[in-house]
């Protein structure tokens, strides 16, 4: 029932603007796959190409192994959930849900029964005869999902469907979406610019920038082993150092710059490119004394209480801004503003990465 | 076009385009070409159609300049062709009607848009709409009754002791066009009201309050803030009222005096009484040209687009 | 100061409504005056006889029927044309759109008599070109009145539907296509239902505009007449108060329609408000 999707060398041009550049990805049947990136990175274009509203300029899109070139949206085994949901305001809920069946000529009693069934699946029993304007944001969300499921698609395409919801509801719906996906086993392709959403829900994430897929990996890999500076920055905070990279040995390399000498991991692919050092604030430790390696002195400028942790910001030599996260465990000593401390990190936690993979 | 095909498919797009083409070509463009064409050919009996006399000519247009009469404009005696005189009077008094409807409608539009409580608006608008739904013929007729010599207006004024003898309203007090101006104003004032009302509604009330807060007196707030914002609506109202007034055949015929000629009446005489369709077409062309010029003038003066006027 | 302004406004509004209504009341009142001339002063006693004369007037009934037929024909033509035009305009942009728009609204601004004359001349010439001068369709008659009226009434329909289209989310069409609907189904189930309020309103406006039309009809008609032209000819030919009786009935009809419309509007507003309140409660319940 669920199908895999293959994008093979897919490009899409709007006039002279290349919205998607040579995208290659193989999404497995039943996978929850997210495209993550800032607005204008081409993720929505990919979604619209898969659903059939746009044809790729080059390359092939295969759904369940079959090239869908020239197949119109209403003939593809995909169902799209729109950013604004696009529920039909003039139809009651059950007609909304069974619209896909209606246009396929299914009789009314069957449609009604199917709609009730799907409403139960999305945990909205008894809403069949309400109108769209009677539902809350979260309820509308579920109706949109039920409507898409009604046509028994092999692939569900979701275009930032949670972006219009309140923070609390959004977090609730994340778990809900994930549960529905597991229950139905349908392939989900999810588009978002919210890294928290993508990392929390997906089996795999494709991070995009300027039309190119930067990295495809499981959420944890994306966060811990980003392939370049863009991915590292988009999915989280970093302290970044610049300098001259020395010789590589055993997957590690040295770097010497304005703030001293460092040692960090470097991947085989990154070798030979212009590199910067990235380390996450939660892997940055503060101490009164200088550590054995990878240590920079800074003056604390701001201490922000975030609840579970405390964010400490400071300035190192030359105005370099650094930050560290200190666990709010009652044991760790939190420095005060104006204090001079050393920010240090483990070489195994730091990465030497090139900039984003872009054209020209 | 791409968008249209993508949204509605080939079949529906073709049907839509055919309907639009029928409207624009068969109902609008070709008839006007036809009128332009006919206006340059002489009026001939059927037997002479397509004959040697059926040739291009300007004689239909020259008829406008025939029959000079002596008249006076604001006390200055002049001699001009009778149809030119009618034409100038029509344009002048239509402009007067436009001005009067503007003066009457603007305060009401402002009241409805910014002063009246929003909840009562639909009901108030409906109250105003009711008279507009009554046909123009009947509204003109109502005034015919009021203005007749033995009618209720004279009876009322005599009853109040304001006049001793009835006034012949239809002949006019100031000019012979008085009755026409009064009734046209009555008939078309709502065409001025609604566009201005719509325009003022779209003005953010905070702007008015900001102006007042800055110490602007009420008249300056209107002059500098509200009227500039309402300009497209005013332009729209002016064009509508002018066109309807200048093009009215019903009102001048029903309430006008014999001395007050309205240009559409002249055209009707050529077309229907003289059965000279060609001259009728020529006069109609002249009239149409002036109307187009008026619309362009209004667009220039108010600095608005056509889409602002026709709403 | 504020209260003062509101009071002045209300006063002016009241005077304005009186100004609009008094002539109509005078006219309607004259229908009941037992006087040979249509007037309210002097009052010569109450009578129903003008309604009786109106009822017996066959010309009036003929004109009335013609008006209805022409209006129905105008609605049948102008509503589809205007709706199609609005849909087309809504999907295109730039110079082509501006030009088309200009052509479409021009007849609204053009004087009715120009529309009437040009329509008659065009069809007449067309008949002459085909050598069929005698064929009825090319001569004057109510069919040409219908076409002439459609040329400008379609523009009202177009403007109303276009305004309604602005509030339409094209995403709904895509959603329907994505769910497997074909273009015909999208039009019938998604777009047209959204446009129905505007289409219904424009059909009503087209109907009444047609009934009211005088200028176009006067120039295009042959012997058959419509109600408005009939009233005009009666007024010109020296009138009896049976026209007032007709006016009274028409005003009464207008009032009833207005009342029905207003009640319907208030009922709908209430339902919509209740629905929104329910959605708000559901939202709050979820957050708790």
Description:
The complex is a heterotrimer of chains A (360), B (311) and C (288). Chain A is of the alpha+beta class. Chain A is 23% helix and 35% strand. Chain A folds into 2 domains: 5-232, P-loop containing nucleotide triphosphate hydrolases (Rossmann fold); 237-353, OB fold (Dihydrolipoamide Acetyltransferase, E2P) (Beta Barrel). Chain A has 9 helices and 21 strands. In chain A, strand 4 (58-63) and strand 5 form a beta hairpin. Chain A starts with a strand and ends in a 7-residue tail after the last strand. Chain B is mainly alpha-helical and 311 residues long. Chain B is built from 13 helices and 2 strands. Chain B has a two-stranded antiparallel sheet with strand order 1-2. In chain B, a hairpin with a 2-residue loop joins strand 1 (68-73) and strand 2. In chain B, helix 7 (178-201) packs across helix 9. The longest helix of chain B has 37 residues, at 2-38. Chain C has a domain at 58-245: Orthogonal Bundle (MetI-like fold), CATH 1.10.3720. Chain C contains 11 helices and no strands. Classes of the chains: A alpha+beta (360), B mainly alpha (311), C mainly alpha (288). At the B-C interface, helix 1, helix 3, helix 4, helix 5 and helix 6 of B face helix 1, helix 3, helix 4, helix 5 and helix 6 of C.
Principal-axes geometry of chain C comes out as flat
The domain count of chain B comes to: 1
Oligomeric state of the chains present here: heterotrimer
CATH class of chain B: Mainly Alpha
> SSE string of chain C, helix = H, strand = E?
HHHHHHHHHHH
The CATH homologous superfamily name of the domain at 58-245 in chain C equals MetI-like
Let me know the average pLDDT of chain B: 84
Sheet/helix structural class of chain C? mainly alpha
Percent of sequence in beta strands of chain C: under 5%
- Measured between the Cα atoms of the first and last residue of chain C, the distance is 46 Å
CATH architecture verdict of chain B:
Orthogonal Bundle
For the sheet with most strands of chain C, the description reads: none
Radius of gyration of chain C: 25 Å
Shape label of chain B: globular
Query: Low-confidence stretches of chain B at least 5 residues in length (pLDDT < 50)?
Result: none
Number of strands of chain C: 0
* Low-confidence regions of chain C: none
Give the fraction of residues assigned to helices of chain B.
55-70%
């Amino acid at each position: 029932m669920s199908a895999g999707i293959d994008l093979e060398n897919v490009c899409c041009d709007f006039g002279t603007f290349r919205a998607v550049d040579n995208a290659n990805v193989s999404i497995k049947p039943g996978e929850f796959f997210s495209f993550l990136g800032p607005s204008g990175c081409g993720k929505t274009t990919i979604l619209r190409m898969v659903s059939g509203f746009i044809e790729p300029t080059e390359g092939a899109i295969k759904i369940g192994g079959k090239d869908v070139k020239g197949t119109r949206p209403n003939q593809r085994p995909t169902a799209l959930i729109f950013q604004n949901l696009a529920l039909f305001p003039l139809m009651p809920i059950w007609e909304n849900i069974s619209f896909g069946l209606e246009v396929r000529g299914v009789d009314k009693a069957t449609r009604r029964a199917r709609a009730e069934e799907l409403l139960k699946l999305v945990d909205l029993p008894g809403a069949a005869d309400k109108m769209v304007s009677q539902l809350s944001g979260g309820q509308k969300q579920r109706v949109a999902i039920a409507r898409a499921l009604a046509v028994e698609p092999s692939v569900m395409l979701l275009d930032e469907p949670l972006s219009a919801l309140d923070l609390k509801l959004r977090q609730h719906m994340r778990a809900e979406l994930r549960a529905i996906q597991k229950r139905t086993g349908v392939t989900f392709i999810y588009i978002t610019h919210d890294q928290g959403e993508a990392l929390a829900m997906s089996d795999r994430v494709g991070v995009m920038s300027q039309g190119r897929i930067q990295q495809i990996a499981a959420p944890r890999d994306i966060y811990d082993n980003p392939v370049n500076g863009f991915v590292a920055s988009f999915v989280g905070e970093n302290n970044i150092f610049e300098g001259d990279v020395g010789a590589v040995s055993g997957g590690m390399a040295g770097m010497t710059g304005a703030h001293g000498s460092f040692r960090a991991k470097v991947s085989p692919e990154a070798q030979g490119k212009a590199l910067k050092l990235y380390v996450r604030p939660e892997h940055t430790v503060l101490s009164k004394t200088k550590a054995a390696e990878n240590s920079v002195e800074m003056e604390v400028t701001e201490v922000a209480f975030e609840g579970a942790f405390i964010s400490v910001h400071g300035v190192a030599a030359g105005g370099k801004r650094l930050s560290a996260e200190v666990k709010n465990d009652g044991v760790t000593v939190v420095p005060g503003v104006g204090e001079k401390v050393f920010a240090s990190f483990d070489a195994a936690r730091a990465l030497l990465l090139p900039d984003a993979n872009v054209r020209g | 076009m791409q968008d249209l095909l993508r949204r509605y498919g080939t079949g529906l797009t073709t049907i839509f385009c055919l309907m639009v083409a029928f409207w624009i070509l068969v109902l609008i463009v070709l008839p006007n070409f036809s009128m332009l064409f006919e206006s340059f050919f002489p009026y001939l009996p059927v037997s002479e159609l397509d004959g040697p006399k059926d040739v291009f000519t300007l004689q239909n247009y020259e008829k406008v300049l025939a029959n000079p009469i002596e008249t006076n404009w604001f006390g200055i005696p002049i001699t001009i062709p009778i149809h030119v005189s009618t034409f100038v009077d029509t344009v002048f008094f239509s402009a007067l009607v436009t001005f009067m409807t503007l003066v009457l409608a603007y305060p009401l539009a402002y009241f409805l848009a910014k002063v009246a409580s929003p909840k009562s608006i639909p009901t108030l608008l409906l109250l105003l709409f009711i008279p507009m739904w009554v046909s123009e013929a009947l509204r003109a007729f109502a005034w015919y009754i009021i203005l007749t010599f033995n009618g209720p207006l004279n009876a009322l004024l005599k009853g109040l002791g304001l006049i001793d003898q009835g006034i012949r309203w239809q002949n006019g007090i100031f000019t012979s066009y008085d009755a026409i101006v009064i009734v046209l104003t009555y008939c078309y004032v709502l065409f001025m009201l609604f566009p201005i009302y719509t325009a003022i509604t779209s003005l953010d009330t905070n702007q008015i309050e900001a102006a007042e807060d800055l110490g602007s007196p009420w008249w300056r707030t209107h002059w500098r803030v509200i009227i500039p914002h309402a300009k497209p609506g005013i332009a729209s109202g002016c064009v509508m009222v002018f066109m309807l007034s200048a093009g009215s055949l019903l009102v001048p015929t029903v309430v006008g005096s014999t001395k007050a000629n309205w240009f559409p009446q002249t055209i009707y005489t050529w077309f229907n009484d003289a059965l000279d369709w060609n001259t009728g077409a020529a006069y109609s062309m002249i009239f149409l040209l002036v109307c187009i010029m008026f619309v362009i003038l209004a667009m220039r003066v108010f600095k608005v687009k056509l889409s602002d006027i026709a709403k | 100061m504020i209260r003062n302004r509101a009071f002045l406004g209300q006063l002016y509004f009241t005077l304005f409504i009186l100004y609009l209504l008094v002539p109509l009341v005078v006219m309607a009142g004259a229908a009941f005056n037992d006087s040979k001339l249509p007037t309210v002063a002097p009052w010569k006693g109450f009578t129903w006889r003008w309604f009786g004369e109106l009822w017996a007037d066959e010309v009036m009934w003929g004109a009335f029927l013609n008006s209805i037929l022409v209006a129905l024909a105008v609605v049948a033509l102008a509503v589809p044309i205007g709706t199609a035009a609005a849909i087309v305009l809504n999907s295109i942009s730039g110079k082509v759109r501006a030009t088309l728009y200009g052509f479409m609204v021009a007849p609204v601004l053009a004087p009715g008599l120009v529309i009437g004359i040009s329509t008659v001349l065009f069809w007449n010439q067309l008949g002459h070109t085909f050598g069929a001068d005698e064929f009825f369709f090319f001569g004057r008659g109510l069919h040409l009145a219908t076409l002439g009226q459609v040329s400008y009434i379609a523009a009202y329909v177009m403007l109303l539907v276009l305004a309604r289209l602005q509030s339409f989310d094209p995403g709904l069409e895509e959603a329907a296509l994505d769910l497997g609907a074909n273009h015909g189904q999208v039009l019938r189930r998604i777009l047209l239902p959204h446009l129905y309020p505007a289409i219904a309103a424009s059909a009503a406006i087209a109907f009444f505009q047609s009934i009211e039309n005088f200028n176009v009809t006067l120039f295009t008609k042959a012997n058959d007449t419509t109600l408005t032209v009939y009233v005009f000819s009666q007024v010109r030919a020296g009138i009896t108060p049976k026209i007032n009786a007709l006016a009274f009935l028409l005003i009464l009809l207008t009032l009833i329609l207005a009342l029905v419309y207003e009640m319907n509007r208030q009922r709908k507003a209430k339902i919509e408000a209740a629905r929104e309140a329910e959605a708000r409660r559901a939202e709050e319940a979820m957050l708790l």
